[in-house]
Each structure stands twice: as C-alpha cells, then as structure tokens.
Amino acid sequence: MNRPGDLLLRPLVLISVAVVLINDHVLKDAFGNVLTGKLSDIAGVFLFPILLLSVLEVARRTLVGTAAIAWSVAVTGIGFAAVKLIPVVGDAYEYTIGFLRWAAKGFSGDFAPILVYRDPSDLWVLPILIASYFVITRNRTRAPEGALEYGTVNPVPRPA
C-alpha cells in the first residue's frame, strides 16, 4: 500500500477508529468513567496524525515527505496538550467539535459543545505518538523524483 490516504486502511488504524467510535458512542454513555476517557485519549492521539497526513495526501494527490510526517505528529502532541492545559484552547475545541457534530446532524436539534475533561494526567498518553510515527513511516515510502503519481514504490533498492 503506497497511495495517498492508504494509511487509514492499516489494521492498527482501523482498530483505533473502531475504538473511538464504540467508546465515544456506546461505552461513554454506558459507563462514563476514567477508563473510557483514557481509551478515547489513547485511540484519538494515535489516530489524529495519521488522519492529518491522509487528508493532506488525498488533497495533494501525492505522498507526503518526512517533514509532513514530523509536522503531523508534533501538531497532534502540542494540540492535545494545549486542549488539556490551556482553558481558552480547551473551550475553543469544545465549541468547534460541538459545532462540527451539529453540522453533521444537518443542524437539527440544539447546538451543544462537547465536554472535555481537562486533566493534566491525560498527557501520559502522548508517547502513543511514537506508535503513530512508526505506523506512518513503516507503511510509507516516498516515490522517487519523476515516478508516476500513484505508482507503487519498492522501498528496498535493487542492486544494479
């Protein structure tokens, strides 16, 4: 797999998407405890840089380089920490995600921001970004200059 956006099809990424969906839409309603909160944090922080890269790749119709990979991981870590530690950033995040959910429902019903628990101990999940980086770099090779836009590239050079 070496096409723009294909990182979203990796098994760990699909598991992460399932965890976020099941946890946020079933488990939190049923249990709503520390475990469900941490589960969302772990799966979301793992998934977000991969999602950022995939959106960028699909928009550009080409694979991204190492700078974009590093950028996506850094933005995720800094953004997550800011939401958890800086009240105005957390508030903006709550209202932004609340608005996006409301829009996804066709603006039906009442608008409500989401609730983010601002617990500094949530920052312990940030090392999961190492796993995100590993999944990205292990499954991504850059096409050589002049290669076909969607061509598969063999990551191991062949002897001449």
The Cα radius of gyration reads 18 Å
Structural class designation: mainly alpha
Mean pLDDT: 86
Q: What is the H/E string?
A: HHHHH
- Helix percent reads 55-70%
Strand portion: under 5%
N→C terminal distance: 25 Å
Number of helices: 5
Globular, elongated, flat, extended or rod-shaped: what is the shape? globular
- The counted number of beta strands is 0
How would a crystallographer describe the biggest sheet? none
Low-confidence stretches: 144-154
Explain what this protein looks like in three dimensions.
The protein is mainly alpha-helical and 160 residues long. It has a domain at 6-85 and 125-138. 60% of the residues lie in helices and 0% in strands. It has five helices and no strands. The protein has helices at residues 11-30, 34-60, 66-85, 87-104, 128-138. Helix 3 runs antiparallel to helix 5 (128-138). The longest helix is centred in the first third of the chain and has 27 residues, at 34-60. The two termini are 25 Å apart.
